[in-house]
Structure prediction request, 340 residues.
Amino acid sequence: MLRNRFGNIVLLCGSIVLSLGFGEIAVRVLDIPPQRLEPLPWQRFKLSTNPILRWEHEPNSSDAQSTINGDGFPDTIQYSVKKSTDNYRIVVVGDSVTAFDGGTGNNWTEVLERNLNAMGKKRIEIINMAVGGYDSYQQVEYLREYGLKYSPDLVLIGFCLNDHYFMKTGGQLTKLHKKNPYLSNGGQINEAVQILHKYSRLFFLIYHHGRSLFFQRHNDQDYEDPYNGQLPSELGLRKLILLRDESKFDFRIIVFPYFSDDFDTVVKDELLIRKLATTLGIDNKTIYLRESFRTNGGRPSSYATDGVHLSKKGHQAAAEFLQPILQKVILTPDLQGEFN
Prediction:
């Protein structure tokens, strides 16, 4: 009797482990949303008064990843709002792929600025306004709120392939409200749960959907999708086109690949941005860097620190790929002819 009971318990435990294992595999293979957003260094962020942005950089802050200037941009230079008549000004918006390493001299926007100015054709000024964790709609809203007053000649959107989606912040906004019971220095959840949250997509899925159902359902900005299931990428790019028509600037979308994938593989999120660019009639405004990284050689992981964020080598390579493309844009005699 005791032996049978013990055997049943072992069988039950084994079945549970196998079920969880199959569930974990299914979630990863099917890539069931939400995708996990890597924790951001929130000591250099503040809450935004703009309900679309939700958070911004804390001016005059810094950490190991970036230095933030007095205007809240990832740079050490303080820019004048008024543009010099002999300057060609480029404003860049994006997420952490473009924001990280800002102000270090190694960020791709800083390397690109140096490379373009070395050509001596025009004085080029690149202002990096990227904010970690932003999706495409937030990026374009940041451009509207802060970037357009700098009178850019050209706007670059640093597009990471996960910018298609609303990224649940895992309690980060709540931390800014000083109400978060999840984060390590905001509450008391045990270490095992933190490890599961970090490494198990199945646990992450259950945790967030469960929290959405049972906790702070109507007040929790961390877990509620403000887009009601619409793609932030489509909303953002449509808004970008409207702003372009109103303010008369040119733009390019710089599409960074995932560095955890083989460069020979066109992943579904790249296919999605290609389809979206075609639908919106902006194929000629979209630059895909995957092929450039592929032909440059080397393992994908050598260009990134974690499969998404650029290493120093990745920043350098991206700037080199973009330099000849943007030189042609900058030297186009009649830029207004591209506003169509």
